[in-house]
Amino acid sequence: MPGYVSAVPAKGNPPVSDTALVNLYSRQILALAADIPHVGRLDAPMGTARVRAPLCGSVVTVDVDLDGDRIARFAQDVKACALGQAAAAVVGANAIGATRADIAAARDALSEMLKSDGPAPVPPFDGLAVMQAARDFGNRHASILLSLDATLAAIDAASAQAHGTGPR
After folding, report:
1. Boundaries of domain holding 89
2. What is the pLDDT of residue 9?
3. Which of 65, 95, 133, 164 could form a disulfide with 73 if both were Cys (CB 3.0 to 4.6 A apart)?
4. What's 116's domain CATH number?
5. Is residue 38 assigned to a domain?
6. Burial label, 96 (beta-carbon count in 10 A; 0-12, 13-18, 19+)
7. Global pTM value
8. Does the structure show a pLDDT above 60 at 20?
9. pLDDT (tens digit per residue) in 151-167
């Protein structure tokens, strides 16, 4: 069929048009994916988490140091598709100074936006609104959420370590 490719957005849905794929991989998403802040790993972080999206195999590892309840240092190693990388870029640009509640609110809002046309996350994570183009691509949602999921898990690991309940 002209104008269609073999990609399928979700089980049982019709083929994805070339236009839908172009919209999905917009110039803005590709620019974000090419410029992820705080890439790498921290030396001796307070908390670390590695999260994998089982469907696509994308992986994000996040290291954090906390100052009280706020992220003081942040680094991430991102092995994901362009969508996961773009989301990680927005997270990386805004993670330092954020609290666990801020990250959780951004994660919940992004998930809701992807699943049910909810509003975009609020500032400072409002840049995640660019992911609205991925709503119909349920197989990409886990990759898009990886950086936030890994950040939450790293904060939890740092908190556990600080309270003496983490691994020694």
Report:
1. 18-162
2. 43
3. 65
4. 3.90.1010.10
5. yes
6. middle
7. 0.83
8. no
9. 999 999 999 987 776 55
